[in-house]
């Protein structure tokens, strides 16, 4: 298993990070991929990658909910770090209109800018979208030419949004604990489109799967998402593991056993 989206560099894990990583390894997680949030989280995400080399991988990007009045300064900081070292991907980026629509224009600009960086650098993108699928699709349409690839992280959209998302060549859906929630209806959405373009993630410390819902999430819990997906598609957990791991390895250019 590869946890394709985890924030184990956040302060939530400062007291027991090594134990959390050991738990993940014990549970069969081969790699943990960590998207950046903004300028405040950069050094943490890099330091965790350095602490667990070849196991934890840093990405670089500006999260949409961090797009405020200082967004140009924040963008410049991301660009600076992208020049300093090689990151696995550009992320997490996107548009989030759930909490606040005040900065929609700026969020669109920041998203588009980072998509163009990804194209130039040949890096995959990790897209955060909440109450903003139409806006995300509009911005993707402006820049997508077949050279972009990436994942719609924490996917929880409807059937038409799922279909449209994977119509972008090279794009997949990141599935986490939401699929185990009783009223998410995500199982019905996924059943219609098939398992071929899926990857698994935790979004730790958020969105812990059943039976840990409401608790601090961690990469070791990803097996519950895997097992739920396997049940949805009438596959064995091993078959689902092989499929989702292969998808993640191909998208992010990872070597896996």
UniProtKB/TrEMBL annotation:
Provide the Gene Ontology terms for cellular component.
Answer: cytosol
Keyword Hydrolase annotated = yes
By its UniProt entry, which Pfam families does this protein fall under?
TatD_DNase
UniProt-listed InterPro entries: DNase_TatD-rel_CS, Metal_Hydrolase, TatD-like, TatD/YcfH-like
What does the entry list as the binding residues for a divalent metal cation 2? 128, 153
Q: Care to name a GO molecular-function term for this sequence?
A: metal ion binding
Q: Which UniProt keywords apply?
A: Hydrolase, Metal-binding
Q: Can the keyword Metal-binding be found in this entry's annotation?
A: yes
SUPFAM superfamilies, sorted: Metallo-dependent hydrolases
- UniProt binding sites for a divalent metal cation 1: 5, 7, 92, 203
The superkingdom of the source organism is Bacteria
So what family is this one in?
Belongs to the metallo-dependent hydrolases superfamily. TatD-type hydrolase family.
Q: What is this protein called?
A: Hydrolase TatD
Q: Which organism is it from?
A: Marinilabilia rubra
């Amino acid at each position: 298993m590869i946890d394709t989206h985890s924030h184990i560099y956040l302060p939530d894990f400062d007291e027991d990070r090594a134990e959390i990583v050991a738990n993940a390894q014990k549970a069969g997680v081969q790699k943990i991929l960590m998207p950046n949030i903004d300028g405040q989280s950069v050094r943490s995400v890099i330091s965790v990658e350095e602490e667990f080399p070849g196991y934890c991988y840093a990405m670089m990007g500006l999260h949409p909910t961090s797009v405020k009045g200082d967004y140009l300064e924040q963008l410049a900081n991301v660009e600076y770090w992208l020049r300093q070292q090689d990151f696995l991907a550009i992320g997490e980026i996107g548009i989030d209109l759930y909490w606040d629509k005040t900065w929609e224009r700026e969020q669109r600009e920041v998203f588009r800018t980072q998509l163009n960086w990804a194209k130039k650098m040949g890096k995959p993108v990790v897209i955060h979208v909440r109450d903003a699928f139409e806006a995300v699709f509009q911005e993707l349409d402006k820049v997508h030419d077949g050279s972009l690839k990436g994942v719609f992280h924490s996917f929880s959209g409807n059937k038409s949004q799922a279909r449209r998302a994977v119509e972008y060549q090279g794009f997949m859906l990141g599935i986490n604990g939401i699929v185990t929630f009783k009223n998410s209806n995500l199982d019905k959405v996924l059943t219609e489109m098939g398992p071929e373009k899926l990857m698994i993630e935790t979004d730790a410390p958020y969105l812990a799967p059943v039976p840990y819902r409401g608790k601090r999430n961690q990469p070791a819990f990803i097996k519950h998402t895997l097992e739920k997906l396997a049940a949805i598609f009438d596959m064995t957990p091993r078959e689902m593991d092989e499929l989702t791991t292969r998808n993640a390895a191909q998208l992010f250019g990872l070597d896996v056993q």
